[in-house]
Amino acid sequence: MNTSNQTYKELAIPYFKETFDCIDQIMHAHNIPYYLIGVSAIALELLKHGIKPSRGTKDIDFAIMISSIAEYERISEALIEKGFNKVEAPWTFYSNTFKVAIDVLPFGEIEEKNTLNFSERYIDLHTLGFKEILEDSIPIGIEDKIANIPPLPGMIILKLIAWSDRPEERENDLADIIKIIEHFFKLAFDEIVEFYNDTFPEDNFDQKIIAAEVLGRKSKIFLNKSEKIAEKIHQVLTSNLNTASKSKISKEWARILDVEVEYAYSILEAFQKGILDG
């Protein structure tokens, strides 16, 4: 278990403790496995290594493993009793007290072809990758609680899938991915030196390029678990690795890193190389 002396204050997410306490109480009462996902999970993992969150959020995302819509409705009722009200998306709840929105994303036996249909609102929720990645979740201590989060390579896969489904609404996913890549060489230095030193070039040593390739290799385990995950990720990468000038991912990374788009493109190429070589 990865424990630490991290505090909610260091995480710098308003009302995270109160929100996490509510979720923890409800899920334990209903005996439902739950996971912290999204930017909060990334922030928690990076904080373990002393890296402070770079952007605040008032949205906290959880994934819960359940078997039916009826079970989800019972969880919804419990959240409403705690002061979280349903809003437009049927998996999103908002607390007027805490001024925070939470997404509670169900997966597991409830899924049909990696999709959940909230028929009363004619809304589909795509859950591709949740099961395969969250079964390798990592427990991290934060004060008196344990948060189960996806491993960093799994977070990249989930965010690539989420971004590709709704790129016009999910611009922060690409920022979160490049943040992982930026810091991964330092985070996994000993492991990279010992097990992935064949990714070191003879010249032009670049930590981001190396990190991207290693993350690609480590992500391959999830593609091997599911043909659908593999198909989706290969589709996203192929469509963004035609030319640098037409690569939406590369252009966004170039803007975030303040670099030439060709360099951002080379980072994405390294990630794909890692997956293909993995």
Helix content, binned percent: 40-55%
The oligomeric status of these chains comes to single chain
Q: What is the third-level CATH name, the topology of the largest domain?
A: Beta Polymerase, domain 2
Class of secondary structure makeup? alpha+beta
Count of individual domains: 2
Question: What is the rounded distance between the termini?
Answer: 26 Å
Number of strands: 9
Strand order of the largest sheet: 1-2-5-4-3
User: Low-confidence stretches at least 5 residues in length (pLDDT < 50)?
Assistant: 120-124
Quickly count the helices.
Answer: 12
**Overall pLDDT score:** 89
- What proportion of the residues form beta strands (DSSP E)? 15-25%
- Radius of gyration equals 19 Å
* N-to-C SSE string, H for helix and E for strand: HHEHEHEEEEEHEEHHHHHHH
Under the CATH scheme, the architecture of the largest domain is: 2-Layer Sandwich
Structural shape: globular
Largest sheet: 5 strands, mixed
| CATH class (first level) name of the largest domain | Alpha Beta
Notes on the structure:
This protein has 278 residues and is α+β, with helices and mostly antiparallel strands. The protein folds into 2 domains: 8-150, 2-Layer Sandwich (Beta Polymerase, domain 2), CATH 3.30.460; 164-277, no CATH class. It contains 12 helices and 9 strands. A 5-stranded mixed beta sheet has the order 1-2-5-4-3. A hairpin with a 2-residue loop joins β8 and β9. α6 (152-165) packs across α9 (207-225), α7 (171-187) crosses α11 (248-257) and α9 (207-225) crosses α12 (261-277). It is globular, with a radius of gyration of 19 Å. The model is unreliable at 120-124 (pLDDT under 50).
